[in-house]
Amino acid sequence: MSEEAIKRRARGLDRAFDILDHLKLAGVPLRPSEIALNIGSPKSTVYELVALLLERGILQPMGQEGQVYLGRQLYFLGQAHLRHFDFTREAERALGDIVERTRETAQLCLLNGRKYTVALMKEGARHFRISSDIGEDAPIPWTASGRLLLGHLSDQAILDLIDPQDFVLPDGQRLPEGNFIAQVRAASAEGFFSFDSIADTFTHCFAAPVRDSQGTCVATLCIVAPREDAKTHYEVYRQVLIDNADQLARRTQQ
Question: Is the pTM here over 0.85, yes or no?
Fold first, then answer.
């Protein structure tokens, strides 16, 4: 590669960081043309870089007017950098407290691109196993956490994110998109969601949001329990989960 080519690539990288820094400071989604104006860069350059960043998941589309904002891939990159940071350690501490107080399986769940995944898990004190495999992706509409993890997105952004086939449930029925979005809005407002598992016939799933300093749900803490036990101890499980999610958010924002 020639010296001039290296310089051009370096300038492009520098502009890409300008875009990310500006979005972070703005705190709201912006159109590429607005970004170009604010950072003093040619529109053509910004549009090209935004397209590349969208493709890599560093940015994500927001709204219906071409706005973009910081993407979830940045979160995963941050996790890699902070592998020994307090978030993982504190999350494990929260999961341990949930299991100790409820005896049920506890999980830390995240979005992974267009899917849902279990990032951490601590199994409950039971003779039989109720859990999901860590790192295994699942359709977002099949999960309690999915109703919370998408709360910061517009209706159209939610529909753009989710593969249409993911609204088809394990029993073959289709979950109406409008119903799902209504559940997202209700869950986000309440700061909690639970339902009988869609993936099986004997568990009930509870989820509470772990929010960042901007109020965006970046992860969830979950309890997976037998339906009868979930019904009997519903209020206790709900409060234990919410308390731990709130504490985890506060500890990792300090």
Answer: no
